[in-house]
Amino acid sequence: MSTANAALSLSQTWQFHRSHSPSPLKRWRSKAESATVSCHGITKCSRNISDDKIAQNYSAECAVSGMNKRRALVLGIGALTVNLFPTSPLLAEEKPANYEAFVDKIDGYSYYYPSDWREFDFRGHDSAFKDRFMQLQNVRLSFIPTDKTDIHDLGPMEEVVTNLVSNVYSAPNQVANVMDMQERNIDGRNYCTFEYTLTSPNFARSAFATIAIGNGRYYTLIVGANERRWRRYRNQLKVVADSFKVLDI
To answer: What is the CATH number of the domain that holds 145?
Structure first.
């Protein structure tokens, strides 16, 4: 074979392998997190309070593209949750009909959500699920670092809840109203679940929030809907709020 033919053959072979090789894997990059906010003496890292304050911008915020930190990993595990984590307190109980269990062993928490909801990326939150047709009907969970060991270290619960609803969850043009508050102790850990309504001139939203502290983190789960659908779906959403548990990590 001549030198020219050999070079041509080598070039054709290289082009074939190049065209048939798999494309490089893309790397997920987490979003930069910055500003800090202080709440009850706790440094609130990378949590944008405006997400909860302006209901009119809610849909735009829900449309943030991409998956949040390591969400692809958790989702990959999610389908096998029952098999991989059979000792989870949540999974040890009988799962209510028409609900699915979300268990995050990495960040230490679990909860139920309606089985026809789908996951979505909500800015500043670790996990979130929403109704397929009504975006405002959803559950989302966030956590922040804390040196507290129990929610009662934050202060009297009535004052804590009132401050959260009036100064953290609501916007300046919204009227906040706490409807009910319940405390419970599960396996030595205290939880507080409260029902509240935020009303503005053109919009009203009701929700349950459950707070707990564990693993050096202050967890907050919020599940709610717009006021028109609240009466119909309140009991369904209460199951979600009551199912939240902190797992030791």
So the answer is: 3.40.1000.10
Domain that holds residue 113: 35-246
Q: What is the pLDDT of residue 8?
A: 40
Backbone angles phi, psi at 137, to 5 degrees: -95, 100
14 part of a folded domain: no
Report d(CA 129, CA 18) in Å as an integer: 41
SS3 35: coil
Q: Cα 34 to chain center, whole Å? A: 19
Enter the pTM of the model. 0.66
Please count the residues of the chain: 249
The answer for residues whose C-beta is within 8 angstroms of residue 172's C-beta and 6 or more apart is none
- Map 187-201 to HEC letters: CCEEEEEEEEEEEEC
